[in-house]
Amino acid sequence: MSARTKARKRAIDLLFEAESRELNAGELAQERAERPVTPAPLNPYTITAVRGIVAHWSDINDALTTYSQGWSLARMPDVDRAILRLGAWEILYCDDVPDEVAVSEAVALATQLSTDESPRFINGLLARIVEVKPTLV
């Protein structure tokens, strides 16, 4: 597993934990960077991703809600929301990650972490975000 893939996984973990505990994900990431709870410190990309997602939270949520075709964010599994937010942020706001890589990594994370139906759903929704990207940014 590449360092960037591990950083994405840690970002998903932080987003999931923050939502579960009703905390600000950016503040949780900062806290974990300053006082790690694991032997390995947070990868800088994890912190960048979480901060980027928090900075664009409303726009990311709006895009996901608009293009999810009948699925509200609240109806999605918690881990899927975290994966989708990361994937959407990478597609819309992270210039150094090709769109195809963002989608592929999100699908791989969903395969590893979520339900059997999640990879297909996440692939379809993020592919739609890629299609409409020029109208969103």
UniProtKB/TrEMBL annotation:
The residues forming the signal peptide are none
Q: Name one GO cellular component term.
A: cytosol
**GO-annotated biological processes:** DNA-templated transcription termination; transcription antitermination
Q: Which UniProt keywords apply?
A: RNA-binding, Transcription, Transcription antitermination, Transcription regulation
Top-level division of the source organism's lineage: Bacteria
Question: Which GO molecular-function terms appear in the entry?
Answer: RNA binding
Q: What range(s) does the NusB/RsmB/TIM44 domain occupy?
A: 6-130
Report the sequence similarity comment from the record. Belongs to the NusB family.
User: Which PANTHER family does this entry report, sorted A to Z?
Assistant: ANTITERMINATION NUSB DOMAIN-CONTAINING PROTEIN, N UTILIZATION SUBSTANCE PROTEIN B-RELATED
Q: What does this protein do?
A: Involved in transcription antitermination. Required for transcription of ribosomal RNA (rRNA) genes. Binds specifically to the boxA antiterminator sequence of the ribosomal RNA (rrn) operons.
Name of this chain's protein? Transcription antitermination protein NusB
Lineage, opening ranks: Bacteria, Bacillati, Actinomycetota, Actinomycetes, Micrococcales
